[in-house]
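User: quick one, fold this
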Amino acid sequence: MGGRPRHHTSGSHVILVDTSAWIEYLRATGSPADRHVTGLVRRNGYGVTDVVAAELATGARTTADLARIRGIADSGVFYPVRPLFDYEVAADLYRTCREEGSQPRSLADCLVAAVAINNDLQVLAVDRDFEVIAARSELRLVSL
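Assistant:
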């Protein structure tokens, strides 16, 4: 986003944090997701992907908000979306869920899930789309 995010290394225990969980953290809600993200931030144990970084940046209301969000994105372990590969998996996830009667509300959530699946990461999210996707795929969610 603005600096140099750390790229992933094999063997590290990183959790990919979805936008929904970051919102809990940024609003300091005190929720289980907020507390879990706080712990991940303290130990630099979180992953970021392009989609989440973009969603967070679009929600910034002030220059200070944007700077804080960029700091979060730049300090995490970066898992870039791999064109075609991750998009194809995301589309498959979306179609599978739709065919089984539980269409996700957001293709972006399917893309975050695809990045997590393809990098063998758990996702921390407070969004029912991820539960729908996880029930129909190899996606692993952090239990809150």
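User: anything notable?
Assistant: Residues 12-141 form a domain with the Rossmann fold fold (CATH 3.40.50.1010).
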